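haha ok so turns out i had the wrong file open the whole time. this is the CORRECT one, sorry everyone. sequence first:
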Amino acid sequence: MIRIGIVGVGFMGMIHYLAARKVKGARVAAICSRDPKKRAGDWRGIQGNFGPAGEKMDLSKVKKYSNLDDLLDDPDIDFVDVCNPTDQHPATAIAALHAGKHVLVEKAIALEAREADAMLKAAGHAGKLLMVAHVLPFFPEFAYAAEAIRGGKYGRLRAAHFKRIISKPDWSADIGDAAKTGGPAVDLHIHDTHFIGLVAGVPKRVFSSGLEDRGAVQYLTTQYLYGDGGPTVSCSSGAIAQKGRPFVHGYEIYLEGATLIHESGAVPPTLLTSDGKVKQPKLKGGSDPLAAFTSEIQAAVDAVASGQEPPLLSAKLARDALVLCHKECQSVRTGKPVFIS
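then structure:
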């Protein structure tokens, strides 16, 4: 039985706790929070932009820590699930790795690439797994799209457009603080850059236009430039919609022999093939968003058991996704294409 210690009991910490209850071969053995109410199980003040609202939780079988070092000193914890604000990810993850724990870090891996590099280095020195919880590839709609692109059944990827638009996040003090999250161009858009890196690879250059407010890019549209023979890929992402449309994401993907389209809440994943047929494929998994997080944590648990990093939780891929976000912000500010080193 793999024993998990969750650090940070905000919205994502709660989601990970709820999702982990259905994971096989593991259980949440401890939580760490500075808030005494949360340690007592009163999570009614927690809210987010999907999933259930916080409620009173029975934590009678869970150890409660107010201090990270105390959790890390616990020999009964096999891996640490880092769910505190992004600006705290590097210090928390590195401390856990130094303590001999495997680590799962909620996206984004960090705010800066140099911090991500330090985390990767610490994992190498410790001989422990550093995994990053990018959940999008575990959602059925995107798992299907990734398989269609990478499996080759419909030929190579020719072009794609992705979008991820939300209204201004206001469900917690931390989520709206760009100093803690990087703002929408990192905290939100990194879902897209991670998925694009997964299915198309890292581009040679990016060219972005966007809107900036108080030093943070709030919305952008990017062309990912792969050079001769590469796909034509673009994405629009940001916190710009009105509250009547709090969240939407989707894609149009053009393969040599098929087109895939999807928009959450409007168009279910649909496959158009070269023979003129249009069908909505049966997807693995249900509509419960927690199911994707359960699959994500299950992959991490299985990795701890086997000692092998799961490709979808690759820290290197997460680091590359962060670099893309920053290069796109640079392009927004300069109005010029930016090379990816």
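The chain has a mean pLDDT of 95.
again sry for the mixup
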